[in-house]
Amino acid sequence: MNIAIIGGGPGGLYLAALMKQLDPAHEITVWERNAPDDTFGFGVVFSDETLGGIENADTTVARAMARRFARWTDIDIHYRGESHTVGGQGFAAMSREELLRLLQERCRDLGVTLRFSTLAPDTARLCASYDLVVGADGVNSAVRAAHADVFRPSLDRRHSKYMWLGTDRVFEAFQFFIKQTEWGVVQVHGYPYSDTGSTFIVEMHEDVWRRAGFDATEGAGFPPGASDEQAVARVRELFADELGGHQVFANNSKWLNFTTVRNERWHHGNLVLIGDAAHTAHFSIGSGTKLAMEDALALAACLHEHPDTEGALAAYETERRPVVESTQRAAQGSLEWFENIGMYVHQEPTQFCFNLLTRSRRITYDNLRTRDPEFADRVDMAFAAAQGLDGVAPAMFQPYRLGGLELRNRVIVSPMDMYSAVDGVPGDFHLVHLGSKAMGGAGLVMTEMVCVSPEGRITPGCTGLWNDEQRESWQRIVSFVHERGTARIGLQLGHSGRKGSTRLMWEGMDDPLPEGNWEVVGPSPLPYGPGSAVPRELTRADLDRIAADFTAAARRGAEAGFDLLELHCAHGYLLSSFLSPIANHRTDEYGGPLEKRLRFPLEVFDAVREAWPAERPLIVRVSATDWVPDGNTEHDAVEIARAFIAHGADAIDVSSGQVTKDERPAFGRSYQTPFADRIRHEVAAATGAAVIAVGAIASYDDVNSLLLAGRADLCAVGRTHLYDPHWTLHAAAEQEYRGPGAEWPVQFRAGGRKPPASRTDAVRPRLSLLRPDPADQAVHQRWTPAREPAPVS
Length: 793
Fold this sequence. Notes:
Region (Disordered): 748-793
Domain NADH:flavin oxidoreductase/NADH oxidase N-terminal: 396-732
GO molecular function, one term: FMN binding
Domain FAD-binding: 125-328
Strand content: 15-25%
Protein name: Bifunctional salicylyl-CoA 5-hydroxylase/oxidoreductase
Number of strands: 29
Number of helices: 27
Oligomer: single chain
């Protein structure tokens, strides 16, 4: 192949070297606009996984890198005048300058043509002249910009300011300096990369940056390679104690806002993007250099494995995109955590450290326990001590008092519509469904959305509480739950609004009924989506009637014996649609700004609060974001939660979306939990209200991690309980927990121990002469390079 590579960074150079290694007949030219010794940045960090790939692909490069690595396992977190160390992580870093030099040498040795200080020709000319053209020209990629109509990039400019610096203080481990200043929180991400220097990244929210006066040079036009020396001088002064007399060095150091780059496509014809040109991930989770070199490795392999370029590029994108998107999801969680770091500085130091370490949701409690058991013990004890609890039980099995209701543990079975009622009456199916979940160990089991009127149903199969027959059937289910276990049972009340009169889920979710349907209503005559019925706009008389329906249903729920009531103000149903500017275009007192959109849901809440027994909790489920432009955001959710708590809500159950078919959710593990986190820290913690996290929480490790980090008080788990109705009890068995937080029904107690797997009873022979020395497997390893002896005077 005849290959043109635009960009002489690590990704472009590594790709060139790999392709030449695979076939010396390849003709490869690399264009780099900077000189070979123009290096911006200081150190780059690699994971063990990436290093293993590099070693398998090119042992020459791997050995050269290994000789230059600084290696360590510890993270030091400096917060509120205390330093906390967590071990067992595993890092390897080296100078970016050294990395570029050895990759340049490798390319020259293999016969790659390197053209430094040279702009690449136009990509159209290159595509016509070369078999393959690679855009490896970084975050500000000219290749991507020139072909934006093909790659369709999205550039998400974030809210914090950061600056890359270096220091001659050689850190022994990864350092987080969390500094509370009169302007707000400023943090440093620092790590060693050699025996002479460390990277020193300063970051703060843009609001803090402005209050601190760092915006004094905002309009200055710095020439290429120049640094903001005024800002660097202030950083030296601000972090003088942390630097301990050492210097800070600048290298093209200016204030930046991180931009997350995503592209709908990475290749077109014989043109392909790699590295930062194709995607970026925030520096707080890893190195862009790491991702770029992984891209290069995958691209080279696919080109070698496929006979045609189009097939190879398609295979490359198929292979790498899931990896990159997973990394970007984790990076998004991490960067948003640091953007909002001011929310957490009230936390007790051990919890703050755990929160910081688990911010991306990739590291969890179990990960940390494996890596550093002593730190995990400290986290457990700090969590229990802060709440006056027993420090032996896992966090998920600690009790919780919700209003006047005592829960044995912090696991909730989420409301899940079953669409299996007849005329709104729950039957044997609901008894078995909810009864099995209640006997499965959860502290609280929630009903599906129970509708307050026939026309408030989603489908003909929805349950209701608009008549006494329904109440009596629910009473049978509630009595079973109370008699057969320790779980409590909650009632979710709602009205379908514009999402009503649709088929059963398995017949066509959200599709209108073909016949026998009922009138659909809403705040405005706006359908839920294409093909949905157009709702009739509700009148004042309608609103009064619906509020009365909620009140009557709440009274029947109390008579049926439910322990808790949840008002459903999420997922685009009636009360949710009043809250959302996407569904509510009213011009009267119930539409317009958020305080008016809140009016009817709050009227219903107040009416239900009056009808519901004062000693039983009343909570609210909200959609924290509509996942569409111009819809509600997490900032609106904070104000919505604040309003309901002010009216007496005991808890906010934080879900998201389903307000419009146009939504574009960012799905992923625990993807909705950051919304709960924000509401808890900005509103609920100060008021005593609880926050319930939901959304793809799939493991007990996730539950424990969320609780220990202080992101939620309770966790609601839905589909996982459909997969395993005894999930909570099985989680106790997996963690070898036996106690009041997870009591097995007496009839099932014989099964309360995890069954043996194949060959778990096998006795293994001894296969080594000497046992490993525990000292060789130390949790804490520091970077302590050899020092030259001090001169003797």
